[in-house]
Amino acid sequence: ERQILRISYDSVHLPSPSFKTSDGELNLTCTHPSVTDEWISWYRQFPRQGLQFIVQGYSKTSPSTEPEGILHISEDRKSSTLSLRHVRLADAAVYYCALRDTVRHTGAAPYN
């Protein structure tokens, strides 16, 4: 049976533009002003594929191995930046940040 990750987007904002590039590094910034006790998670989604978990953190920094990078969480936890190193065309995807834990639901549709 198919399992789809459900993510709550209700209190996450991606300002536009939300990225910067320099020397092959990509910085994606997300604001989450209503964060309380939740872990901050980042995912990406390639065309015609499901969500792929990248990294999760609670404070300060957390490394990411695929893609290579690091998650920086602001001291007040109201924003986070996913810094990816050595970005290639193959890394082109839709990137999401999320609060709240993700929950697997068999046969469920993605939560919006």
UniProtKB/TrEMBL annotation:
By its UniProt entry, which SUPFAM superfamilies does this protein fall under?
Immunoglobulin (SSF48726)
Q: What subcellular compartments does it reside in?
A: Cell membrane
User: Where is it mostly found?
Assistant: membrane
PANTHER family linked to this entry: T CELL RECEPTOR ALPHA VARIABLE 4, T-CELL RECEPTOR ALPHA CHAIN V REGION-RELATED
Q: Which UniProt keywords apply?
A: Cell membrane, Disulfide bond, Glycoprotein, Immunity, Membrane, Signal
Name under which the protein is recorded: Ig-like domain-containing protein
Report the residue ranges that make up the Ig-like domain in this protein: 10-112
